[in-house]
TrEMBL record:
This is DUF2750 domain-containing protein.
Amino acid sequence: MRYFSATGWTAIFSGTETEIGRMRPVEAWDPATGVALVVDPQRGALRPVTDWPDFSHLERGERVVSVIPGGGWRAHWNDGYDGTPVTEAVLAWLIHADGRATPISVGPDGTVDTAELADRILAPEQDLD
């Protein structure tokens, strides 16, 4: 699983007896200490990763610098959810710091996810020929 973050870093937590291992995007860096800050969902605030006893390490994540509309593009999988082909609208494109673009598709039930594993990305008005 990849995390997209404004900083390009992800904090990895190994888990405890009461909480499973998890990943959180690094939102910022403490200006005084330089420690990575992540959102604490219980407090609704940024906290240093070192506040958690199960903090393990940081990993490079995906740094997103912009988001642009899908523009009519579509993602197609030859074998969809039930083995039949499926095509979904590209809702948006995530633009990475290195210039790559990741399509974000929306399924018929409203589920939004990356479509980077699609078999084909279809341009607007392009058929499946």
